[in-house]
């Protein structure tokens, strides 16, 4: 047992700590931890829905459970690229990166167009079924925004107002 503890302390833990300090891994970790309250709310609502099966007058909380779990992938699609930009030192475009991640995720889940011209999403792709798509969308947007935020189309010392320069640079 001492050998195992010694190996964990001396060899395994430093490697895991080094990996956890990677900005990409830290961004995913931060995003999941930030969105975790939605999982707790959904879990609590699921437990309350089980009580409804045994007590006939108890309200139905299944919609709350479905809704809170369904928001999880939307939150990840926003939070991952935002955290990537913050961890990479591009705080000025972190919110724009989050919104781009959300938009890219919505494109990835493949909405359909109805005959009436309305866009319809399959709600199953927003919950845990869409987590991988949200993770990939967030990381992809984080990579692209990180690459392009290193290049500036308009310098800070130009005559163009700052907010217009930020728009073009973003």
Automatic annotation (TrEMBL):
InterPro entries: PTS_Sugar-EIIC/EIIB (IPR051088). The chain crosses the membrane at residues 24-51, 63-81, 93-113, 125-148. This is Cellobiose-specific phosphotransferase system component IIC. Keywords: Membrane, Transmembrane, Transmembrane helix. The keyword Transmembrane applies.
């Amino acid at each position: 047992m001492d050998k195992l503890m010694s190996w964990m302390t001396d060899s395994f833990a430093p490697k895991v700590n080094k990996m956890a300090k990677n900005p990409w891994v830290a961004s995913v970790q931060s995003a999941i931890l930030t969105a975790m309250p939605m999982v707790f709310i959904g879990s609590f609502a699921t437990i309350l829905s089980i009580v409804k099966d045994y007590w006939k007058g108890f309200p139905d909380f299944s919609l709350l459970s479905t809704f809170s779990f369904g928001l999880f992938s939307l939150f990840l699609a926003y939070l991952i690229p935002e955290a990537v930009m913050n961890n990479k030192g591009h705080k000025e475009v972190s919110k724009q990166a989050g919104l781009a991640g959300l938009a890219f995720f919505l494109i990835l889940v493949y909405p359909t167009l109805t005959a009436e011209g309305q866009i319809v999403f399959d709600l199953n792709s927003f919950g845990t079924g869409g987590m991988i798509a949200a993770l990939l969308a967030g990381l992809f947007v984080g990579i692209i925004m990180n690459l392009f935020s290193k290049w500036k189309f308009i310098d800070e010392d130009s005559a163009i107002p700052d907010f217009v320069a930020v728009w073009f640079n973003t």
